[in-house]
Amino acid sequence: MTTVTMTATATTSYTYTPLAPSPAADPAAFEDFGREVHGFDPASVAEEGYAEIIDALYRYQVLLFRNTTITPKQQFLLTHAFDPAATSYGHGNNKTGKETKSILHPDLKTIPHQPEVQLIGNGRVPGEYEGLDSPQLKHPHHRTFHKHPISEAEEATAHATRFYRWHIDAALYALSPPRVTSLHAVRVPQGPWQTVRYDDGSGDEVRVPKGSTVFASGKNMFDLLPAPLKSLATRTTVHYAPHPYVWMSGAHALPTGLGLETEGLELPLDSLPAWDEAAVKHLPMCWKNPVTGALHLQVHPCAARSLSVAPLPAGSSREGALFPDGGEVTDLAEVRELLTRVQRPGIAPKYLFAADWREGDLVLFHNRGVIHSVTGAFRPDELRMFHQCNLAASSDPVGPDADDVAKYA
Ligand SMILES: [Fe+2]
């Protein structure tokens, strides 16, 4: 893959190389997406060096540093630099193990001496590791979550797999969505590439490295929509369920991993752990990039419970407009149908970046600017280890401003 190296200028201390796009990607969709950073050692640069990296992340959404050795403490400090007022892991420190009903429970092992950093992966780690006693890890398999999984025979013969679950890293209850997530690849078993099938009638499929983390830009997701859906997205607020990962714990995913089947399997609100209306999250459908000002369509489709659409602003054309007088969408099937309409185009194969992990990789991604998914499957004996860190943000994301509304609504 040919790459173009940007020359360092007086204003940049490091160099940035475009990430090699995935084979099916449309290069035009990735001009401003994804950079490998050279000259920045995340383990040793002092905080003064962070400002440029922070700016670059908001411009490029995903930054890759190769061949790093970085301790959990150093990883925390780098992640924390994006939000110095943040105080806890994205789901709350030491919370993931306690909500035993939460669907996130099995996937995260908290590193005791640095509780904002989680060990994730697959297989049993031999012996003591970062204060954990021979932790057992499990790569999430779509069979445990999708209503109609791929058969084991097809998995074995065709190396076929799915997007496990498209998401934003966020508790979406009480805590604000983290600005950035860092992932440090410690152990990465290699294997044949796998074919992710969408199985939604589109015929879409995409080849990805085994166990790839796939990313889709929320900016592309917004930009590619036709005007009536841009208008809708600009005017919509998403209401999330209280304790969403408990609420959805009995539900099954669509074959795309982009949201849930509507089967009435969500827990009734009165059988959830105690919750407070004031802690329920109501977030705009589009989040404004703090550096570029672009709108990113950012929704966790599994956790959304209802939508509110504001009326068109005075003077807007009503021709072709959806919900011109505004409205409330409370029927779960309708909520999900609408979310699929605005999100599914943005995860088409040509809009995907699929990480080809190598040991020593450190990836930072703009968690308020992309959605992402785990893919693939590993045998129980394949050891895979990543350190993941994100922090509940010190404030909620900001939605479209008056100019955006005037432009798009
Ligand atoms: Fe994630």
UniProtKB/TrEMBL annotation:
Specify the TauD/TfdA-like domain's residue ranges.
28-389
Q: Which UniProt keywords apply?
A: Dioxygenase, Iron, Metal-binding, Oxidoreductase
Names of the cofactor(s): Fe(2+)
Stated name of the protein: TauD/TfdA-like domain-containing protein
User: Record's InterPro entries?
Assistant: TauD-like_sf (IPR042098), TauD/TfdA-like (IPR003819), TfdA_dioxygenase (IPR051178)
This protein's record includes keyword Magnesium: no
Q: Does the keyword NAD apply?
A: no
Q: Which domain of life is it from?
A: Eukaryota
One Pfam family here:
TauD
Family the UniProt entry places it in: Belongs to the TfdA dioxygenase family.
